[in-house]
Task: structure prediction
Amino acid sequence: MTNRLKRRVSRRPRSSSSSRAKKIILAGFALVIFVIGTRTIGSVSDDKGRQFVHLRGGSNNKNKNLVWVHSDSQAFNERSLAAQATHLIVVAGHSVLISGDVENAARDDSVWWLYDYQRNRGLPQAIVSHIQAGIKLALEDEKSLLVFSGGETRSQTGPETEGGSYFRVADALHLWHGRDVFSDSGTDTTKEFSTVRARTATEEYATDSFENLLFSICRFREVTGAYPTKISVVSFSFKQQRFETLHAGALQWASNRFHYVGVDPPASTGFNLEESTKGERQNSLIPFQTDPYGCHTDILQQKRKERNPYQRTAPYPLTCPEMKELLSWCGPDFISRSQVPWVAI
Result:
């Protein structure tokens, strides 16, 4: 046997060994990837045997305030509680989640998709405060339906809705019983029993405040089969004038059956009420004064276009046929009272 042939023969086992080593390394790498993946989507059992599904982010440490849904979570419309509602509570959305660290949604800008002008302005604190305020109102009235309203408004985030994001935050931070995540008094103000989760729905098409109100009324009709006798809206304090005088007025909704709750973050977060009020007046209040249905002015039309990047069409003319005329009304004059379905309420 020649020396060259001997060298070839001697190399074969070494090549086979190298191949096996590579396969072992790749298999180990795949296992590591799998383990990491199960940290973000998986399930565990608690000491009561309940199955918890970990939806997003963080670790599977069940002692943390992560996004969990367990086997005995309160189901929507349990015991027909939502269907029996007469009071509509609307929480108007302002952003969508972009992070799995939802337990930090009350303080961390990076959890939310924010425009440059919204950063370092207390938006996380404002959003969670709005959610808490809506839940507080719902706790006070067992005949209420809470609606988190807001559509797929950010093209960069994928089809995530504002309404769905708010619901997930309420779950993640355990807010349904009235917990205040900002309280440092040590006093427990939560209720032992709450039906709010069973009475909470989302509205996922609205692109501005007027649509938050209009579309949420239809969501109420979809759930209950009737229109509300009372409406409460939760948003920033600087939007109160617009909601009370323009949006409710454009819907011919009686002022004595409309309640507004304005909630702002503290100035220590970077929130500037004076600056926000000025921007509200210039970019929303004045345009809606001449165009109450948002159909004609460039600034309002452009906002709706930008906030509907996925070209969604709301189904409400089909599901709320009594509102069909109102849903297509463009003004500039207010629609007459005889043309809205709640005139006799």
Confidence is low (pLDDT under 50) at residues 4-15, 32-65. The first helix runs from residue 3 to 40. The first strand starts at residue 42 and ends at 45. The CA atoms of residues 34 and 270 lie 41 Å apart.
